Amino acid sequence: MTIATLATLVLTGCAKNPDAEMDKFIDALMKKMTLEEKAGQLELPAGLGTAVTGEFQSGDAMGPLRQGLVGGFLNIMSMEQMRELQRVAVEESPNKIPLIFGMDVIHGFQTTFPIPLGMTASWNPEAVERASRIAAIEASASGICWTYSPMVDISHDPRWGRVAEGVGEDPYLGGLMGAAMVRGYQGDGSYDDPSYIMSCVKHYALYGAAEGGRDYNTVDMSKNRMYNEYFGPYKATVEAGVGSVMASFNEINGTPAHANGWLMNDVLRDEWGFDGFVVTDYTGIMELGPHGLGDERTVTKRAIEAGIDFDMVSGYFVKYLPELVRAGEVDEALVDQACRRMLEAKYKLGLFEDPYRFFDDARAEQVIFTEEHQAEARRVATESFVLLKNEDNTLPLAKRGTIAVVGPLADAPREMLGPWSLRGGVGVSVVDGIREAVEGKAKVVYAPGSKVTLNNVVARNYGASGAGIQAMTVDPSTLNNDAMVREAVRVSRSADVIVAVVGETAGMSGESASRSEIDMPDAQKILLRELKKLGKPMVMVLFNGRAMSIVEEDAAMDAILDVWFPGSMAGHAVADVLFGDVNPSGKLPSTFPRTVGQLPMAYNHKNTGRPLPEGAWYTKFRSNYMDVVNEPLYPFGYGLSYTTFEYGDLTLSAAEMSADQAIIAKVTVTNTGKVAGEEVVQLYLRDLVGTITRPVKELKGFEKIALAPGESKTVEFTIDNEMLSFYNDDLQFGSEPGEFSVMVGTNSRDVKAQNFFLK
After folding, report:
1. Maximum CA pair distance of the chain?
2. Can you give the residue ranges of every domain in the chain?
3. 281 carries an active-site annotation
4. Are residues 685 and 742 in contact, defined by beta-carbon separation less than 8 angstroms?
5. For residue range 462-480, what is the model confidence (pLDDT) as tens digits?
6. Domain 3-364 coded CATH 3.20.20.300
7. Catalytic pick from 104, 281, 360, 432?
8. 554 exposure class (CB count in 10 Å sphere: 0-12, 13-18, 19+)
9. Most buried among 208, 219, 479, 516, by the most CB within 10 A?
């Protein structure tokens, strides 16, 4: 009996996924499958090829595919190749089981949005959900039914390059953004509409806490800290119905995630109720060997017993599981369980009903990189920008006079997209965006200004291909930095204002892009210093995939606009904000340190027994540095506007509450400036006395409001018992009676506070 025949035995509404019908279908199918075929469903080879040609390079998988020994493929660029592979699977393999095709659709498909860290800076989950929805619409028409997103790894160390993919340092904000991405990709999870795809949250767990900010490195922390500071965003995506979970590369308290049964079974499945499948990261099972867990057969056994279902690239499950089962070393029920989870995912996606439902050339033509999608990418990009400094209202710029646009990133369209932009093509450069915005009104002069860095070896590392990053096309050793700086100074002499477009290239952040120093690269520092000597107003447009240490630049520049990596419409979005067509409203999702020596750093830190007195610097026998203040350069939640907002007094509806009650916190915010703007009103709480130590403050709510000049709005936050709860020393979640501080303000530092008691 073929799969098509089996499918007719159940009701035709496969996409609706009634559990009883799905179970009946899969039971019948699995009875026909050999042990080898079951293990084959757990095999996920790569077909990445190159981002330019999309050549499929795993040709040796065609034979196993015909034998039913492949469950899916990842990162194949060609829809024609995917369609042919699907044809072989459903026509030539023993049980005609369709393949699942995954891709790293991280911040857009063809239409590229800001990097996830940038989208998080919008503090607008609805905008993030819309961006993810567009990514799903485009990817689903191109053969992709599964994306490795969102990444919700909390990180306090921006040396780690993958902060660019993530949601910053706060578990509450990160959870909201992760859940929004899941909803955007998956909808309600029924997949009735083929424009939705399955989401995969990553990297489970704690990957962002890698020691030293070095990728793939060890993580070691208490379970109390895991539950209170790091687990929250993963759990939020599970509650949002995420279909799959990816294991992390790091070890956790001595056991790598890919062999960590407590993590995958006890926490993820038993505590949180996750019922999807768990996929490895790239060669994750293979890497258990270098971790020191044993030979190939041993680590295969440990991975399947830990709850891993889908083996990305290592090939160990299909190679060793049948013999391990027959030798009595692995329970066949574990293989059956993993196989069932993979078949359920394919059933839910509607692949048994129509294996080609995600291959739609006509729909692809209609939905990919449309004007509507480009407009949304431009809108989301402007909302992600964070105004870090604006001395004497340097911004917005007037569309007149002569504007000098200089810097190595000013005319770098590929760099606009940032890391993990596999299908994005190129973006609109900043200089092109500015030229279009002021056409016929102002003169634009341009010079590249400098190299990215003076270290040619490091420059090549920054431009190395991989993870979707385009290889450098210019040998950095052929560039004369002194001559480039002189030319930029010459060009800028005639200008009324200088826009310096500087920072990181796309290859300086993302996977395998850790930096031991996170300040402005040396060549660009020289450029900025020389331009400053001209005495003209200077605006720094900062490209970055992480929080950076820019103390010197903060002191020297008149205005600083952090634009992260904005995506396809970068140049237009930057121009929109520079010239005031859009008022920036972004807020930092990560703390900006003064120096790398302060790392790791986060706003929601614990106090010490010897805290530094407020307003003090170095005090002997207190917790501080001798050479730098404890405070960051820019705090979490920070971001300016072209207008000003005034916060009235914070009031509470009661001075005390019981666990079954709530307190209303109110604050009135007024736009005291001359232009309309949006403000993110932020709520923080502190448990002043607990059975265990508690953070100095925790984000528990926010509201983004729009105000016209002179307009006021009263913002209310309802504080209930769940907001006061935490995991205690026994990992029990609940609140404790005592005094709490409520803080409301424009960022995590500048707040107004009132206290109340929980009875």
Report:
1. 80
2. 3-364, 387-589, 645-758
3. yes
4. yes
5. 764 333 333 445 667 778 8
6. yes
7. 281
8. middle
9. 208
